[in-house]
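cron nightly-structures :: item 1 of 1
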Amino acid sequence: MPAQQQIFVTGNFSTRVEQGRARNLIADTGAKYYWRWRENCLLYAALSATVTDSLDPELQLLLGGDNGLRGYPLRYESGTSRAFVTLEQRFFTDWYPFRLARVGAAVFADAGRTWGNGARQTDPGMLHAEPGMLSDVGFGLRLGNTRTGLGNVLHVDFAFPLKNIAGTQKFQFLVQTYKTF
């Protein structure tokens, strides 16, 4: 099978006008790259950035274990702008135990940060930590559910933050479901 490469670029802009002024302005862009360099191996890279202006008070741009930065606690940082990059090597197997789930694995690295008005770490115990780029590395197991129409993939990840911040655990254990590997 020859190497196959795909790139997907997205952009989104939304706002509303209130009393002649733009409110809740959100501009979001991203790119995803897939390279199947062997039949059972795929390299995945993603880059995304979001900027906002006059964001509604109930909305936040978050960064943490639940939205890409797997080595840090859920909703670890918030701000009015966010940038994020991930690099992931995915491995597919023919293992299909009890014909319930297809098994795969991944090794990954993530980096990102938030900034702007109200930028802070959302854990009250972390408010005085040094701001800047956060990064992590890790590995995970992927279980593709073949017995439901939902087609969910269970991600079981172990991620290790590369920045030593007081009060942050040495690793994060995450279990999440996604529609894709």
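cron nightly-structures :: done
The CA atoms of residues 158 and 172 lie 6 Å apart.
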